[in-house]
Design brief:
It holds the Pfam family RelA_SpoT. The chain has 225 residues and is an alpha+beta fold. The chain has a single domain, classed as Beta Polymerase, domain 2 (2-Layer Sandwich), CATH 3.30.460. It is built from eight helices and five strands, in the order αβααβαβββαααα. Strands 1-2-5-4-3 form a five-stranded mixed β-sheet. β4 and β5 form a beta hairpin. The longest helix is centred in the first third of the chain and has 29 residues. It binds ligand 0O2 (2 copies).
């Protein structure tokens, strides 16, 4: 096993474990028939090429080290997507009350969006991973954002690759305007939140009732006789 594989292994474990735990939170809301503030969860270990780019940016050596682990807080990255802006606060509250991780920093790019137009709430956590060599504390970055913020960020991220971070002025302006439009969409949706959630609860009840009316295999056999 290479030294990078060995270095990144606990990060992979942290991402896998946290992804299961956060998806579990969504499941718990569903079991209780309560609208979940979490729509979906994704996670990734930062690819080596991106780690390399970040080390160049930060002027640190590209080698597995304590310094790298300390300076790059998003080698383990989780993303939690929400339907409504107010869900983000609920999710952050849920994170604050967990005792399997420790929050080391919070960055609010929602009330203070980035110059690019980027909006998201970032929580940096320290998460203990159990390994065969004992416990290892891993830093992970959890990005919490609405579906609209996520849509904007993924589009902008792809364009960033194309233009290598140097956008033509017109594209930059359009992206800033698109970010505002996405935020307007979030605001409008928030205003009819109760209406939307009532409809969603009605729809999931309807789906459940449809499921319970499907004949089981055994019933199917009987009716075919
Ligand atoms: P389902 O049944 O599709 O909802 P892995 O491939 O093992 O690393 P995972 O979770 O499969 O892990 O992949 P990833 O990329 O971390 O997470 C993707 C999950 O996010 C998938 O769900 C996607 O369906 C879900 N997803 C992506 N975009 C959206 C979206 O716009 N809305 C919703 N509701 N879900 C989205 P799952 O967990 O595979 O299950
Ligand atoms: P990737 O490919 O997502 O991993 P840092 O640069 O991390 O040491 P900083 O600047 O305080 O320190 O980090 P920040 O801005 O809190 O978080 C960085 C991450 O947030 C980025 O990771 C992106 O995922 C996301 N992000 C921040 N600004 C933007 C933006 O303008 N557009 C988009 N699409 N995403 C953004 P990486 O490593 O840059 O990229």
């Amino acid at each position: 096993m290479g030294q990078w594989d060995r270095f990144l292994a606990p990060y992979k474990q942290a991402v896998d474990e946290l992804k299961i735990k956060f998806k579990g939170m969504r499941g718990q809301f569903e079991t209780e028939n309560t609208n979940s503030p979490i729509e979906f969860v994704t996670g990734r270990v930062k690819p080596l090429a991106s780690i390399y780019d970040k080390t160049l940016e930060k002027g640190i050596a590209f080698e597995p080290s304590e310094k790298l682990a300390h300076e790059l807080q998003d080698i383990a990255g989780l993303r939690m997507m929400c339907q409504f802006v107010s869900d983000i606060e609920t999710v952050v509250g849920l994170l604050r009350q967990r005792n399997d991780l420790r929050i080391v920093e919070e960055k609010d790019y929602i009330s203070q969006e980035k110059q690019s137009g980027y909006r998201s709430y970032h929580v940096i956590v320290e998460y203990p991973v159990q390994t065969i060599n004992g416990e290892q504390l891993i830093l992970a970055e959890i990005q919490i954002r609405t579906l609209a913020m996520n849509f904007w960020a993924s589009i902008e991220h792809s364009l960033n690759y194309k233009y290598k971070g140097i956008f033509p002025e017109e594209i930059k302006l359009r992206l800033q305007r698109a970010a505002e439009a996405a935020f307007q969409l979030d605001e409008e949706m928030s205003k009819i939140r109760d209406e939307i959630q009532e409809a969603q609860a009605y729809f999931s009840e309807y789906k459940e009732s449809q499921n319970t009316h499907f004949p089981t295999d055994r019933e199917g056999e009987q009716t075919n006789r």
